[in-house]
Write a structure and sequence with these properties.
By secondary structure, the protein is an all-alpha fold. It contains 9 helices and no strands. The chain folds into 2 domains: 64 residues, no CATH class; 67 residues, no CATH class.
Length: 147
């Protein structure tokens, strides 16, 4: 079966259908103003049994709403391209360190004290400011070596 779902929400999609169950409910309610909810449900079910073309509209409405819930809650892992894009936006020289300074403003001595991959930067920079010793690309290369 070849089927095309409306690109908009379920309620709007149903309003354009010839067999609109919402219109059926409104008509039954207008024709039976004293009917309780339960009685209107019974009337709807009787009408749907008599006109099964409503079933497709009802199932499509249910499907669109539930598929949207599924699609929004399904876990999505970031793609490699997304990760690379985010990494490319991070400027290591502007990376804020626990000392309150950026990496670029810090001295090599301060980096050694922080440990990790910053130790190598610190050892190479010594007492100099990191930004005066390393370019952004050199820092990226060092980080890649330690990843």
């Amino acid at each position: 079966m070849n089927r095309t779902l409306a690109p908009w929400g379920a309620t709007k999609a149903q309003s354009y259908k010839a067999d609109n169950p919402r219109a059926l409910l409104f008509q039954l309610a207008a024709d039976n103003p004293q009917a309780s909810r339960e009685e209107l449900l019974d009337l709807c079910l009787a009408e749907i049994e008599a006109h099964p073309e409503y079933i497709e509209s009802i199932v499509e409405y249910w499907f669109i709403n539930n598929y949207r819930s599924y699609a929004h809650t399904a876990p999505r892992l970031p793609s490699r391209e997304m990760i690379d894009s985010i990494k490319a936006q991070i400027c290591l020289l502007d990376f804020m360190l626990p000392t309150g300074k950026t990496l670029g403003q810090s001295t090599g001595t301060e980096c050694v004290k922080l440990g990790g991959w910053l130790t190598e930067i610190g050892e190479r920079a010594g007492k100099q400011i990191v930004a005066s010793v390393f370019s952004e690309q050199q820092l990226r290369d060092l980080l890649a070596e330690h990843a």
